[in-house]
Design goal:
Blueprint: H1 2-26, H2 28-38, H3 46-65, H4 69-86, H5 88-92, H6 112-124, H7 133-138
Helix pairs in contact: 1-2, 1-3, 1-6, 3-4, 4-6
Length: 140
């Protein structure tokens, strides 16, 4: 059962990365807007948007498959936790009581805490991730 649940975490967190990457590929101008609003413009350069988007799609795919987990699980955690860190005010004050206002709050960001935790669970419970492709390959 542990392996199945870890597969579900891999599939859901990896799919999230793929979805974000595809959205950035389909709408680079929206990606720039999000970068400006939430990431202080750190990834707003036109030369960065598409390579990062394709990298995110590849990362999500490798996570779902469970390939090279020692490398890609921590990288996924870095991406997902970095995304959560960028919206820390929305996580610390989802109801807009002290850091945000009722007009600027966005409770839809709060699940980022769960996604960040899921990425850490994948790292620390990797030994139970028996359905991962690299584990299945190493058995042969």
């Amino acid at each position: 059962m542990k392996a199945v649940l870890l597969l579900a975490l891999r599939a859901s967190t990896g799919a999230l990365l793929i979805i974000w990457g595809v959205l950035r590929v389909m709408s680079p101008e929206a990606a720039v807007g999000l970068s400006e609003k939430y990431y202080g413009g750190m990834i707003s350069a036109d030369a960065l948007i598409l390579p990062l988007a394709y990298g995110q799609i590849a990362l999500g795919t490798l996570v779902i498959l469970g390939l090279f987990r020692t490398i890609f699980y921590p990288l996924q955690a870095l991406v997902l936790m970095g995304g959560a860190a960028a919206i820390w005010k929305y996580l610390a004050d989802p109801l807009g009581l002290y850091l945000l206002t009722p007009e600027t709050r966005n409770i839809l960001f709060f699940p980022s805490t769960t996604v960040a935790a899921a990425s850490l669970i994948l790292i620390f419970f990797k030994e139970y991730d028996a359905i991962a492709a690299d584990r299945l390959i190493s058995r042969r």
